[in-house]
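step 4 of 6: structure.
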Amino acid sequence: MAVALLAVAAVAGWQLLLMPEPPAHAEVGPRAMPGALVVVLGALAIAYLLGALRGRQVDLLDDPAGSPLPGAGRRVALLALGLAAILVLTPAAGIGTACMLAFVLVARAFGSRRILRDLIAGLVCVFAIWFVFDRLLGVQLGRFATFVPWP
Amino acid sequence: MEALQALMGGFAAALQPTILLYGFLGCLLGTMVGVLPGIGPALTIALLLPLTFKVPAAAMFVMFAGVYYGAMYGGSTTSILINTPGESATVVTAIEGYQMARRGRAGPALATAAIGSFVAGTIATIALTFVAPVVVEAALKFGPAEYFSLMLLSLVAVSAVLGNSLLRGLVALSLGLLLGLVGIDLQTGQPRFTFGAAELLDGIEFTAAAVGLFAVGEALFLAWHGRAGQQEALKIRGRVAMTAEDWRRSWKPWLRGTALGFPIGALPAGGAELPTLLSYYAEKKLSRHPEEFGNGAIEGVAGPEAANNASAAGVLMPLLTLGIPTSATAAVILSAFESYGIQPGPMLFTLQSGLVWTLIASLYIGNLILLLLNLPLVGLWVRLLAIPAPMLYAGIVAIATIGVYGAGNSLFDVGLLYAFGALGYAMRRFDFPVAPLVVGLILGPMMEQSMRQALTISQGEWSAFVTRPLSGTLLGIAVLLLAAPRVWALLRRSRAT
């Protein structure tokens, strides 16, 4: 986490350097607040890193009461796969189909082993959400499934 | 008197069938999300944000108020029956409420929670009705320097008080502020932190960020943890009602809880957690039956439940009068105001007086609806807990995705949603508070604007923030909040040695 924070501060600092100089008439230009924040975040990230090195920062992985059950990596990977499926499939197959598939994968990540039941539940649930948003509330979502002529 | 007249006008508007229907839907939805673990009012309101393009402002805010209050009512049900608070505000309720339920007194526990919430919610709304105009009067005298200092104080307070570590709170806050600055700078047209992506020129889509942090982050965390859905609800034996003895022991805690909840809720970072905790300890101290605490004392449910509902009205005060959100939910409501092009703050009461008073009137009505909805339907709410975890979280991910996709029809926003989900997961795992990030995200640009306006007025004199009395005082309090716990700890350590 500390390394990630330092990386964020570094990337933000790099972006800051890419910004052109502010016009002379402005009292405080567009770089002032981001600049201050990058410095503060960098300092906080270093303080966090030092604390973590001394074992003072929390990671639930090391907490006997809060640690995950075995198989945590597999569960997160399944869920992430579901999310990735939505991003990849939506343009080709429609948001409904993509979310239905993701539904099955997320359910699986939470320990469900009944794929057929999840698929049917996913179809009903996602269709209901799609119908409420697209048809009742008028939020444009596109076709539920692009390969079926209806709806 | 003027407030009373305006309130009557608000009632006339809020009692119109359409608005009433939205209020009812909000209460229903709020209670539902309050009962369901893993989804809270902030997430629900964030998911409803796309509707701001379709639904009139008054109806939408009445619905949001219903969700907010409803979640407070619903959260107590899970605290009492499965010892898993549906909301962070009802964590304390679980201590005594669950013990009462285990001893077969789930009915009185649920009743004192619901009736106490009603009493506290109503009194706190009355307080909001009459105190808000006074705050507005004072706030009209604020200049940009005062606003900047007030926002800074709120942000520092949210980071210093919430969560377990000041350092982690400040990290979350800085991240939020930095993310809030993404997009085109309004004064100079300079793009900032956009990495050349056109989608980021308008800033980070707030719905994607909030829903990602709360919904996807929670789902990822619970999948990683692998312990979701392992609790079972206790049965409710007998009627959901209170005996004369229960009434006698409950009414004072309700009033004390309200007295703690409303003012603390109105303070920056006061939120609902602090007053509920204070109310619990106050009741424990004042009770004639201190031995019952830990074994199911009704005062320990009555007080905190009243406090959390009163604080919900308290949180609305700085939001409506100053435009400053003091909790994650309030931050989401603020972003809804922004999407209607309405700027909350002192001018809201003059420019949008109809909307404000309809909202306040709807709080009274909402409280009544919730009381009627909660007690008779408690069996139905409990049945919600039977939804298997895989279905629940798969449904949450689907609704979060479709909601965010619908807001802008953009897969980029969906990607952003998942990126914020990953951030939310990391924050849960490494114990970073989420509220400072969300509040920082929404207040960051406003704070920068105020700072630059103040510096333009003072011709670049930074000392203006300190030399203006009110601004200086607010900054002083912010510094105290940051430094006092450290100094206190050092003093105690030196005294001990």
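step 5 of 6: annotate
 - Chain B touches chain A through 70 residues (CB under 8 Å).
 - Residues 30 and 258 of chain B are 21 Å apart (CA to CA).
step 6 of 6: archive
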